[in-house]
Design a protein that fits this description.
This protein is α+β, with helices and mostly antiparallel strands. Helix content is about 25%, strand content about 25%. It contains seven helices and ten strands. It has helices at about 15-20, 30-40, 65-75, 120-135, 140-150, 160-175, 255-260; strands spanning about 1-5, 50-55, 60, 75-80, 95-100, 185-200, 205-215, 220-235, 235-240, 265. The protein has a six-stranded mixed sheet, sandwiched between helices. Strands 1-4 form a two-stranded antiparallel ribbon. A two-stranded antiparallel ribbon has the order 2-3. A hairpin with a 4-residue loop joins β6 and β7 (about 205-215). α2 packs antiparallel against α6. The longest helix has 18 residues, at about 120-135. It is globular and about 45 Å long. It starts with a strand and ends in a 5-residue tail after the last strand.
Amino acid sequence: MFRRRPHTTESRPWSRERLLIMLSGVALIVVVLIVGLAMSVRFALTEHGATVTRADDGSLIRGDLPLRDRIAAAPMADMDPQAAFSPDPATISAGTIEVPAPTILTGPAGVATGFPQTAEGAVGQLAAIEQRVLEAMSLPVAREVHDAWVRPGGPSFAEWGLTGNVTSFLTHAYQGGQEKDLTTVVSASPAAGQVKGSDGPSWTLACVLLDVKAWIKTESRMGYGFCSRMEWIEGRWQVAAGTAPATAPSSWPGSNAAVAAGWLTWTEPQVR
């Protein structure tokens, strides 16, 4: 189902034809919608000034990069594209990650915040940022969130993976425009998470697997994985400066593929 992959400088968003094959029999309007959701912008890590070697599995090893860049560059599981759409209920335990709830429901740019300065808090903040952008499916909202939450030196608005998802959604569902209409509903709920690595208490490479659902006449659904450098600045976790991390594996939440990719089931602390 999966293998370790090297970084690539090639950008290969899923084609419409590929998704039409995967989703044969589904109404065209839903296929068009899912195409927009599934198009992820893949980023390349620069090799300038680094010693580049390859492991036995072909993955790149950059031995002289700083720790944070090594964490970001480490490859993640390479999933079969169908894994994002295939329920395949897991037959083994995935383990859990306990993510604290936000204490402020409406923070900068409408993003929930107030997560603690822990690795799990960084995972929670990244999920809140993703939820705000993907559920709105609006370029003005995405820009507002980017301005409020992405630090200087981080991905530009045009380069940000979430911007790419919104743009693709609007392109394929509406042939362009700035935002979805009121008849379309998108929900993005965190289903699993990973802490890929940390460098002290103020920097974490957080990953979130969202359960994304969209309704245009009928429901369509997929799993969407996303990672980001997160840094504790000015009393909150924010998207940190630096090259984008390796692409996260997208798989159906709660599936065997999700377990194999290392996703931990999302839980919240019990209310006492």
